[in-house]
Amino acid sequence: MSRIRPHALPIRIAGLLAAGLAVTSCSSGGQEAEREYTVPASLCGTALPASTLEPLLPAGKKISPVKTGSPGFTRCRLVVDGRVAVTSIIERRESGTTLRNVAYGTYGMGSGSVTKGTRYVVSDAQAVGHVACGSPQKEDHETFAMLRAEDVDAGKAAMEKAITDLAGAVAATKGCTGQGA
What we know:
29% strand, 5 helices, two-stranded antiparallel ribbon, alpha+beta
């Protein structure tokens, strides 16, 4: 059995670590994961440009929309490779409900990480917006849209664009304009 000299030990450890890092970097292939699916042009039927959704979605192979809800509450989840990637909620609330109450109460957005506006509250991965419906006081309710990127920090600019586009799309629906509903 050979004996290791104390002064040679750090050199041996450094050599082993370097060899381990070289093997690790070679095995990763240096490629980032790619998006193999087509980005949808809607959130469960609510039209949105694919360019709006793209920054919120992770790489993956397959995307599927899953819509659930009841009157006054609709949830859409975009599921990528079996994991929820984006969640949107369209909800009617009692008249007088504030954007702040919806954002901080329902969606749990921390007050230190948001940009506040008169119609939107936005963070890097979440956004809440007040929807300007054609008949906003229908049944003494107001409509809010909530959006969350589950796997990606899309950034405030991308989230603001997404919630602005979503709120606009919801405002144009039959349920919001009162036409045909």
